[in-house]
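Narrative of accomplishments. A recurring question from our advisory board has been how the design workflow behaves on a single, concrete structure rather than in aggregate. To address it, we present the structure tokens for one chain from the evaluation set, followed by the sequence designed for it. No filtering or post-editing was applied between the two.
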């Protein structure tokens, strides 16, 4: 069988290497070459928190392909090459409306995501845990993987967190539990994937520009739910009204577990008196335990919410209470998610570049009681910012707008916050924020938009923010104090 790989990034390279290892003929095609010493692309080291989850740093993809005796084709027109393939594995960034994709569908070609390809080669003795939702996917994936590892299980974080699922299968033969973060882009064409445990972190309108409508976005996110069997488990956020409403309309056979910030039945995990409480009864056993948030790094509401989902899943795998407690206490936060960068002249700078949706920005704004100078904007995805107006009015003293097209943000927040400024670079945004902020304030980068106007990824955007803050701190420290007037 001839397998076409469309895209030469992490997911495409992983799918190509898995395909070659399984003996398929591989056709690799993309509009730019894979990264490597000859590509001019800077390869950044993975953070310590990701390495601890089994996620490797970005690598020399070109060298990996050559080692597997694979070549690639760089062309703006991949159609002739892909038409000659039996199955096409699409890069997650290629949307349904892409003309080449539509032409392949008209030609009757099978088009699937790398997630689906990995599932078709998933060893039956392994366990698949799939985590999706609008907000909190990466954090929940990281928390659960760390807790499972603390409890003695061989777990690896993979998928949208930055490690190709196909590559993870190939490189981790000893892993028993694969914790897969799945985006709607990957689930859109994953028609058979069926996890043993699934977590839905929440649901709100997102990526409407990519999917075309809210209905299409929801259909992609929840495509696997009705394939779950009575032996599978579905964990979801009961506070997410849209998710709860949509699930009520689905035929669900899986055992269902619900978590909420505060106890409202039905509920199997919640927060009370600074403790995580888990109360679960399965056909085999009954578990109720409490673990304290005291001594953990979880000081923000969204992080604690994600820990509830992870705790339920950990309980399903019989992780002991003391291991869950130890896991929570030793968690490392992911980069670019509510990440403290520096405190300069009494002002705290927070990097939340991973906030690419309205709901994630809502959680970020709600995490601080201090006045906020909010840096927001980027590539708009058809967002409705109305849900942020009340919170912005109560918490935000100024908005610094970034990105090429900010008119929707301007319309949403004019006359809502006292000040609004436009920046034409991240450096300018940080300087403007510094001029506006007072001691005790928070400068928060939480864009609520994708990064693909100024940057290649939210990571690159977050790194630009960190660099700008570090430059600001250096410049301020080197500025001599004003001279006292002579008398």
């Amino acid at each position: 069988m001839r397998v076409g790989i469309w895209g030469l990034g992490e997911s495409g390279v992983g799918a190509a290497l898995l395909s070659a290892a399984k003996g398929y003929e591989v056709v690799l095609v993309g509009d730019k070459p894979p990264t490597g010493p000859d590509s001019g692309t800077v390869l950044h080291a993975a953070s310590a928190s990701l390495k601890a989850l089994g996620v490797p740093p970005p690598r020399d993809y070109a060298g990996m392909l050559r080692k597997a005796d694979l070549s690639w084709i760089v062309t703006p027109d991949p159609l002739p090459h892909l038409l000659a393939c039996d199955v096409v594995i699409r890069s997650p960034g290629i949307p349904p409306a892409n003309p080449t994709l539509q032409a392949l569908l008209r030609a009757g070609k099978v088009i699937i995501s790398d997630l689906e390809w990995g599932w078709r080669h998933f060893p039956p003795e392994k366990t698949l845990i799939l985590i999706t939702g609008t907000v909190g996917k990466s954090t929940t994936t990281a928390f659960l993987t760390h807790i499972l590892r603390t409890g003695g299980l061989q777990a690896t974080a993979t998928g949208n967190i930055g490690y190709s699922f196909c590559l993870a299968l190939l490189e981790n033969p000893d892993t028993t539990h694969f914790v897969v973060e799945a985006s709607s882009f990957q689930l859109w064409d994953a028609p058979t994937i069926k996890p043993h445990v699934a977590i839905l972190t929440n649901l709100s309108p997102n990526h409407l520009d990519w999917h075309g409508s809210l209905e299409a976005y929801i259909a992609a996110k929840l495509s696997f739910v009705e394939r779950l069997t009575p032996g599978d488990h579905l964990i979801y956020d009961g506070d997410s009204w849209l998710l709860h409403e949509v699930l009520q309309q689905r035929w669900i056979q899986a055992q269902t577990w619900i978590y909420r910030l505060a106890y409202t039945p039905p509920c199997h995990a919640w927060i009370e008196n600074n403790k995580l409480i888990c109360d679960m009864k399965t056909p085999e056993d009954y578990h109720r335990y409490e673990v304290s948030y005291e001594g953990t790094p979880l000081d923000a509401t969204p992080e604690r919410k994600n820990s509830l989902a992870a705790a339920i899943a950990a309980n399903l795998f019989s992780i002991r209470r003391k291991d869950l407690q130890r896991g929570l206490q030793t968690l490392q936060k992911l980069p670019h998610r509510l990440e403290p960068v520096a405190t300069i002249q009494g002002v705290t700078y927070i990097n939340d570049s991973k906030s690419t949706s309205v709901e994630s920005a809502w959680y970020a704004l709600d995490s601080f009681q201090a006045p906020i100078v909010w840096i927001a904007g980027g590539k708009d995805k058809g967002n409705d910012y109305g849900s942020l107006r009340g919170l912005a009015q109560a918490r935000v003293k100024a908005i610094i707008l970034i990105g090429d097209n900010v008119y929707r943000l301007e319309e949403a927040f004019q006359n809502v916050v006292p000040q609004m400024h436009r920046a034409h670079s991240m450096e300018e945004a940080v300087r403007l924020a510094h001029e506006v902020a007072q001691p005790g304030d928070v400068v928060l980068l939480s864009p609520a938009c994708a990064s693909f106007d100024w940057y290649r990824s939210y990571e690159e955007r977050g790194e630009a923010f960190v660099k700008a803050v570090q430059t600001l701190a250096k410049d301020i420290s080197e500025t001599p104090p004003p001279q006292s007037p002579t008398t």
